[in-house]
Amino acid sequence: MPPATPHSAHVDGFARDRLPPPHELPEFLFDRPELQFPDHLNCATELLDRWVDSGQGGRLCVQGHGLRWTYADLRAQANRIARVLVEDLGLVPGNRVLLRGANSPMLAACWFAVVKAGGIAVGSMPLLRARELVAIVDKAQVSHALCHARLADELALALPACPSLKQVLHFADGRGGGELEARAAAKPADFANVDTGAQDTCLIAFTSGTTGVPKGTMHFHRDLMASCACWPPHVLRANGDDIFIGSPPLAFTFGLGGLLLFPLSIGASTVLVEKTAPDALLPAMAQFRATVCFTAPTSYRAMAAHIGQNKAQHDIASLRKCVSAGEALPAATRALWKQATGIEIIDGIGSTELLHIFISADEAHARPGATGVPVPGYRAVVLGDDGQELPRGQVGRLAVKGPTGCKYLDDPRQANYVRNGWNLTGDAYLVDDDGQFVYQARTDDMIVTGGYNIAGPEVESALLLHPAVAECGVVGVPDEARGRVVKAFVVLRPGFEGDAAMVKTLQDFAKQTIAPYKYPRQIEFRASLPRTETGKLQRFRLREPA
Ligand code: 3UK
């Protein structure tokens, strides 16, 4: 018998029609009891309505921008916005809705409104420029946009090149002033969530890729619930009294999970603030008495330095769990944060394709320099170039499978990310004798010099142990004699001089810390390093000739 067609509520079949063909999908693993999902599933019902319907609507849910909403408040606002989308803007299930704004309670309400109405949320990083917006609107054939008034100009510049995008509404900060808030205020606070299928797409997340057309990763209602059922209960182990805070935008799945889906899945609360640079995040943590923080390794490093300078100024005693992802966590950064706060960071590698973290270690099992072990629900191996699993200790390609996996929107690059049922993340890893997964570099970033294979991040980790180094990035640059040499770009801490003596000091330091052949033959001092909005070092920009 052919498998029954899964239930779908999508009237607009755009996403369904553009899923990868079955033979290009990764293998999915649903063996755990918590990963048995019903055929009918709307994740907004599970994450938001459930609390109100069970009499817990009075629990604190989301704060920020001067607002303090309970679960009942967030649901009412999301319901009203869902009515605006459906009744005023003609949204039908399966339509794509662009969401634009810095993290805020209103952005969270818009996200839930789209999902409740059976729409597909398409996040966009706040700093995107018109031409980047055009690319994602075109790729996802976005029909509606909910955009913060402050970001309206850039979207307006994009509109003439976006024929699919017919409806745009602006919002402000949730307390009137915005066109969306005004329309929402006129609507009743109830809404019947669309009875979507577990395998209906509810999210298209674009990768923070650096070149070419952006890749849209499609995620089902089921995928969002699966991500809440794996890493959070097994590794993070937060509870309903926790107050989440952090820097990643909701348009980045690290932020969507950590700052919205995960706290709501356990009845906890979240703080969504606009300013999330390290010097703003510290006072926000103190102000909101935050207990769980999500941010990138560089942000922990910068915050540790701030705390070191004026210990009394920031009272972050409420903090109890700190999560790092997006980039490898250098051992030196883990140590600095522990020194400053007493907290052992929970590192985890995730990807937009797999939605969230799939290898990680909790506080008790954290090991400096290692990412951790596969999260319950996921399997991970290291493969050689022949596609066979490598013995422990050998560097190869990280391959992962679990309840979530890569589903690119109509993209031939699906065949690069998924091979033989495995998701290939593009990372070079090894498994050590204890079974811990140890990050080396992005596969493309391994530096081949004089016959050696050198991982830039290992050299970075060594330099970051030196007290003069605030930040650094290490890449291979062309060299006539050796083909390529290791070059370090270094941002110094205040009070240190980037002169020839400092070059020598850092080179000698590297030679004493790691195998001498890996030391940076060239060092250039910079005021800052190029990073993406998701906190990743843009190594390709360091490789470009100045
Ligand atoms: C790198 C890491 C070492 C790695 C992400 C958590 O970063 C996320 O998604 P992206 O699609 O990038 C994925 C790539 O980033 N990476 C991420 N975390 C780590 N490398 N150690 C880490 N802890 O190259 C990976 O392939 O932007 C992270 C949750 C959701 C996410 N989307």
- When the domains are counted, the total is 2
Coarse morphology: globular
CATH-derived topology of the largest domain: Rossmann fold
CATH class of the largest domain: Alpha Beta
| Biggest sheet statistics | 9 strands, mixed
Supply the CATH architecture of the largest domain: 3-Layer(aba) Sandwich
Detailed description of the structure:
The protein is 30% helix and 23% strand. With 546 residues, the protein is of the alpha/beta class. The chain folds into 2 domains: 14-431, ANL, N-terminal domain (Rossmann fold), CATH 3.40.50.12780; 450-543, GMP Synthetase, Chain A, domain 3 (2-Layer Sandwich). A 9-stranded mixed sheet has the order 2-1-10-9-11-12-13-14-15, with helices on both faces. A 6-stranded mixed sheet has the order 6-5-3-4-7-8, sandwiched between helices. The protein starts with 13 loop residues before the first helix and ends with a helix. The model has no long low-confidence stretch (mean pLDDT 95). The structure holds 5'-O-[(S)-[(2-aminobenzoyl)oxy](hydroxy)phosphoryl]adenosine.
Write the layout of secondary structure elements.
Layout: H1 14-17, H2 43-53, E1 60-64, E2 67-70, H3 71-88, E3 96-100, H4 105-116, E4 120-124, H5 130-140, E5 144-148, H6 152-158, E6 167-171, H7 179-185, E7 201-206, E8 216-220, H8 221-229, H9 231-236, E9 243-246, H10 253-265, E10 269-271, H11 278-288, E11 292-295, H12 297-309, E12 321-324, H13 331-341, E13 346-350, E14 357-360, E15 373-374, E16 379-383, E17 396-401, H14 414-417, E18 418-419, E19 422-431, E20 437-442, E21 446-449, E22 452-455, H15 456-463, E23 469-479, E24 483-492, H16 500-513, E25 522-525, H17 539-543
Parallel strand pairs: 1-10, 3-4, 3-5, 4-7, 5-6, 9-10, 9-11, 11-12, 12-13, 24-25
Antiparallel strand pairs: 1-2, 7-8, 13-14, 14-15, 16-17, 17-19, 18-19, 19-20, 21-22, 23-24
The protein binds 5'-O-[(S)-[(2-aminobenzoyl)oxy](hydroxy)phosphoryl]adenosine.
